Amino acid sequence: MASIEAVSDEPEAWFKLDQDKRKLAVGGAWTIHESARLDRELNELEACKDIEIDASKISRLDSAGAWLLLRTSRALGKAELNVPKQYVPLLESLDQDHKPERHKSRIPPGFKGRLYKIGRATMTAKDQGVSMLGYLGRVTVETGEALAKPKHNLRIPAIFHQVEETGINALPIVGLLSFLIGVVIAYQGITQLKQFGAELLTIDGLGIITLREMGVLMTSIIIAGRSGSAFTAQIGTMRVNEEIDAMQTMGLNTVDTLVLPRIIGLVIALPLLTLYADIMGLLGGALMCYFDLGVTFPAFLRELQASLHIQTLMVGLIKAPVFAFVIALVGCYEGFQVERNAASVGLLTTRSVVESVFLVIVLDAAFSVMFSVLGI
Q1: What percentage of the chain reaches a pLDDT higher than 90?
Q2: First-residue to last-residue Cα distance in the chain
Q3: What was the pLDDT predicted at 103?
Q4: In this structure, are 283 and 145 located in the same domain?
């Protein structure tokens, strides 16, 4: 192929195969501007073996031209390639096979690997617990300081806003689920106690289970999934958007501003929600007893009053502030652990819900053991 006359300061790219087909001469400016034409013409080049590519007359070479030279060399059976010295580093860089190194897992196979995973999870849980205890200490100290000077440190409008968000706005879902759980407990009690002719004991069991355990436990689990996750997502999004850094730069205390209103608001709201859930659960059970046993509402209330004491209600309500404190603390703590990416917000929001539910159930079991020992 004959060379083409230059029409600019830099000669156009060209190549020429000699008659013996032993040498391919290359010259001109092998740049990206000429790459499309060169690609078409090189694809039409007849394949030859034991050929030399003489690129000594190249006046200009960029990565696109270097790639075309390397591709032509490989297409011609890895032909010998001679280029000016200044272009050798570029060709060597492009000629390297950039293969990612195979990831070598640190986890040994088999039984040792399982032990390794158990040990790693244990250490992670230990570190998480220690960090959360430290955060608990900080929040406790700052809460004491806020209560010592409430006019200066407590943000009353923010607290009432959290009471509205975590309490009033949660009434529909808490009421509906508690009502349905009351229906389920009553139905199961009636089904089992009918075998012994003791259907009326369903009312006693419904009242004790709802007021002591299910009312506060189910309400806490619902709030952990609804409000605890919201705390983590809100604070985590603020970290991603660098709003937390801006607040610290302005000298604002993030615990006073973000954490205490959420904790105090939830501690106020959850006992009230628990009482509401107890009422809705008993209402659902009363409705089931009316349709299945024919027990009227006045008869239901009389039987309930005869079997229950005020301490039965108080046992459930005493747990509510403790559960609220744990849910809010975990939600805020995980929010501050969020890294500066969206994926971390979702991951730690999920972790917040799991940890809150786990701790609530553990604490509920601990309360049950304590009340049993005290005879309450």
Answers
A1: 28
A2: 102
A3: 60
A4: yes
pLDDT at 325 over 90: yes
What is the token pair recorded at 183? 């229906």
Residue with tokens 């939830």: 266
Alpha carbon distance 362, 342 (integer Å): 31
190 and 319 assigned to the same domain: yes
Cα–Cα dist 195/216, whole Å? 30
Q: Which domain holds residue 287?
A: 134-374
Classify residue 297 by its DSSP letter.
Answer: H
Q: Higher pLDDT residue, 108 or 152?
A: 108
Structural tokens at position 3? 């060379």
Q: Which residue, among 130, 137, 330, 334, has the nearest Cα to 239 in the 3D structure?
A: 334
Model-wide pTM > 0.85? no
- Assess whether 226 and 350 both reside in one domain: yes
The tokens 């492009």 sit on which residue?
A: 94
Whether the CB-CB separation of 185 and 214 falls below 8 Å is answered with: yes
- Edge-first strand order for the sheet with 23-30 is 14-17, 23-30, 52-61, 80-82
Task: Confirm if 142 and 256 have CB atoms less than 8 A apart.
Answer: yes
Give the C-alpha separation, 93 to 149, whole Å. 67
